[in-house]
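To whoever picks this up:

The nightly regression suite flagged Protein cornichon homolog 1-like as changed. Nothing in the input moved, so I suspect the structure step. Input below, exactly as stored in the fixture:
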Amino acid sequence: CCLMLLTCFRDNTLITRIDIIAFDELKTDYKNPIDQCNTLNPTVDRVKKIKRVRLALKLVLPEYLIHVFFCVMFLCAAEWLTLGLNMPLLSYHIWRYMSRPVMSGPGLYDPTTIMNADILAYCQKEGWCKLAFYLLSFFYYLYGMIYVLVSS
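Regenerated output under the current build:
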């Protein structure tokens, strides 16, 4: 069970790092906003046409679903402190998704507004903060796993 959680956590950290790189590419004009948003946001039309490998590149929903999965696992295991530490980020994810721009499909990033300097800076800060949270959480989870293994 712990190995499965650590694997999911590793995937979430990878998604966050890809987000940071994607926004840096936008900032330096390496990619245009439409291509970037097509990479980050899943769309209903494209999901039907694209293979599973390409679907994994759609970053917003998998990150949120993995985090919800973590919280459900902590709830089932009665890890109240760990669940309490994850609730602020889960609440932020829910708020962020509920207050996303109006679009035809799921996703957070609108190609018409993502090049706004304030929004781009906000997305970069959000990515760095989430990466810091995931790394600190990783070491906390690793400590907890080692503590349980040593004490038993």
